[in-house]
Design brief:
45% of the residues lie in helices and 21% in strands. It is built from six helices and five strands, in the order H-E-H-E-H-H-H-E-E-E-H. The chain is α/β, with parallel strands linked by helices. It has a single domain (2-155), classed as CinA-like (Maf protein), CATH 3.90.950. Helix 1 runs parallel beside helix 6 (136-155). The protein has a five-stranded mixed beta sheet.
Length: 156
């Protein structure tokens, strides 16, 4: 993943673009990765760990009704997280992760390992649903890695 980080780092610097992240199940792993290389302060503007539903509403402005209707682990919530953090930071890109890392938390139709990742800019939002295998740390790490891959594709 270090090579992917270097590629993202180079692209963001070359294009003079900025990014902000909103994370739930990863608890800051994505933000930590994006800030791991020297010079990342030129492009990384904000990392928000909005683990609770209340934090998603209070910090990111996601309507409680949206969370209640679709669940915190859903495409509509994830897309809103990405767009809200982008607007909050005034960054070019917003990226968000929400999911069920386990070992508990599964609900019908959303087993442990279900993760949504969204990347957005002013014109386009892409949101993908994943089903990762393994224990809690494996799900969190796979989520971070998938988010970095999505951001890289978005930058190209």
């Amino acid at each position: 993943m270090q090579n992917r980080l270097k590629q993202i780092h180079a692209l963001l610097l070359k294009k003079r673009r900025t990014v902000a992240a909103a994370e739930s199940c990863t608890g800051g792993l994505l933000s930590a990765a994006l800030t791991s290389l020297p010079g990342s302060s030129a492009y990384f503007l904000l990392g928000a760990v909005t683990y609770s539903n209340a934090a998603k509403s209070k910090i990111l402005g996601i309507p409680a009704k949206t969370i209640k209707t679709h669940g915190a682990v859903s495409a509509p919530v994830c897309e809103k997280m990405a767009d809200s953090v982008r607007k909050l930071a005034k960054s070019d890109f917003g990226i968000a992760i929400t999911g069920i890392a386990g070992p508990s938390g599964a609900v019908p139709g959303k087993p442990v390992g279900t993760v949504f990742i969204a990347v957005t800019d002013e014109e386009l939002t892409v949101c993908c649903r994943f089903r990762f295998k393994g224990g809690r740390e494996a799900v969190r790490e796979q989520s971070r890695d998938a988010a970095l891959n999505m951001l890289f594709s978005f930058l190209l």
